[in-house]
Amino acid sequence: MDLLGRSLPCLRARAADSYPRRRKKSRRGGANVLVNPSTARLHVTTGTGAGRIDIAAAEHAARDLLLALGADLEDESLRDTPGRMAAAYAELLTPEPFDATTFPNDGHYDELVLVRDIPFHSLCEHHLLPFVGVAHVGYIPSERIVGLSKLARVVDHFARDLQVQERLTTQVSSWFERELSPKGVGVVLEAEHTCMSLRGASKPGTRTVTSALHGLVRDDPRTRQEFLHLVGRPAHA
Fold this sequence. Notes:
Oligomer: single chain
C-alpha cells in the first residue's frame, strides 16, 4: 500500500444508512463542516472517526508523501505546502449543506424541467486526480417541484467526494427519484478525467459521457428523444 493509502484512511468512508436525511447546519466559525451523511460520505472535522477528514492526519500524510517524492520542505516555497494540500483536499471533498426546498406543483406542469451545462469537478477515487465537466439534469414533475438552483446544488453535493463518474451519475438521479418521486428523471454527465489525459493513456481532450434515465425519460420514446436532443446527445445514446 502506498504512503497516501497508509496515512489517509479517513478520506474513504461511507455513511451508515441509519442516518437521518435532513441536513445539519454548517458551523462556519471553526474547522468543522457537517453535511448530510445519508447522501455525502465525508465530513471535515478536527476529530477522527468514520466519515470524517482528519486535517492534522492529512497534513502529516501530505508531508510524508512530499518527503518521499524528494521535496525539500525546508525550502520557503514548500514549507507550508503540506498544510495547503490538506486544506485543499478538505475543501474539494466537503459538500456545502443545503435545504432542498420543494413546492407543490399547483400549475400541474408535466413537461421536462431541464438545467443544462452545470459545471462540476470531482476527484477520481483511483488516483486522487480531478475530473471536470458539465452535468445536464432534468425531471418531469409529479406532485412536487424543486427550486432550479437545487439541480446544480445536488450535482455539486455528490461531486465533492472521492468518486467515479458512473456512481456520481446514479447518485444524482437517485436523489431526484427519492426526494421528488417525479414522473421521470434524466441525468447526463460529460467530463474530462485528468487521470486519463495527464498520465497513463495520456489522451487529453477525451470526454467520458454517462447517463441515468428513469421513468418516462427512459421508457417513453418521445420523452427520451426530447431529453437527449435538448442535452445535445443522439437519441440512440
